[in-house]
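User: Sequence in, structure out. Go.
Assistant: Echoing your sequence, followed by the structure tokens.
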Amino acid sequence: MTVKACESGKMSFPEGFLWGAATSAYQVEGGCDLHGKGESIWDRFSATPGKITDGSSGAVACDHYLRWRDDVDLLADLGLQSYRFSISWPRILPEGTGAVNQAGLDFYSRLVDALLERGITPNATLYHWDLPQVLQERGGWPDRMIIDAFVEYAGVITRHLGDRVKMWATLNEPWVVAKMGYEWGVHAPGVRDHLASANAAHHTLLAHGRAVPVIRENSPGTSVGIVLNLIPFVPATSSTTDRAMARLADGDLNRWYLDALAGFGYPSDVLQTYGGAFAAVQPGDMEAIAEPLDFLGVNYYTRSIVSAGGNGDEPDELEVHRGDEVTEMDWEVYPSGLFDVLVRANKHYGFKHIYITENGAAYADEIAPDGRVHDARRVAYFYKHLQEAWRAIAAGIPLDGYYAWSLMDNFEWSHGYTKRFGLIYVDYETQQRYLKDSAYYYRDVIKANAVLEI
């Protein structure tokens, strides 16, 4: 693949803009029962028949737990300036609280040291969905006990790594935790309970807020944030009911989290959907959630088009793509939505430092006869979205970095290994890694610090 730079200065990024790629622990590490690691809710969920599309699990995944040295070499080869990874809570505290697993601490310590030796900034996420199973059995995120447990865990890992890791995110996509794990039941732990989901939505945010001061104390000079998945919701028609349902969907996924973090409290229209049943908020909770952030991480993939649905009281996302390209996840490729959510996060909510912490696309990649993986659609996806990132900066949005999702193909949650998002192709039988064309394109983008024509 050949690329050329845009006209000088046309789409160059600011000096110091941070380029990275992201993964999560359960999706890449494997080693599910090695060296004292405890069971996670995803270990249990994946072992339950019928939960994962291809019947697989993350027990081996990309074997990153054993192959991390080679993977760090790949990070360096691509010129990545930062690596966003998550910590496995049950690898650190096998029982969720209490006794610390030194082998788990040592693994992440070695990883961080190797990154720093290569000039790669570690960006660590404390929670990317792999709750210790023992804590789920005590009630999980819907139970208030989880807050103290999370703060304890945050304290353990940041005391150990806080001298070297200076970018911390508390949680990845708490909406997914609450909605997909505790209401729809399609993610671990597979619960279907509307009120449990609401409680989880509150407790994830409260755990975040209570942990932020602990992280700052243990990691002086650190930058602390949270990562949200943001989606523009568009009414399918101009009807009053469709517009109302689009706003309610926006309230459930976007405003519930953004409003609370910005100190506005929970949106009243979403609270009304719970009637008098939602009573999780206690005095001081909302103030704790609104603890000032150093950055907001934004994960962006697509938009949703919403109609009132058949019963007229719940949002119903329609598969309306208007002829535009759709990824293997059946998500519309809608680059301008990235610009929209970045502007909203800054202009309406006042977040002064923003990172795109995930952005990418799943396609059915294959190794070509020449030994390369030619993923032109993913290259085009990155090209279009990087243009929108640049446009946001040009509009005055304080966007400080971009992380491609993902560094490598991996265990894609309930889809198993059927969806490939990676810059790097993984042969799961041999664990051989192959750079895709998108990896070479992204490497050149980083080197140029600019959007490159394709």
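User: And one key feature?
Assistant: Residues 67 and 421 are 19 Å apart (CA to CA).
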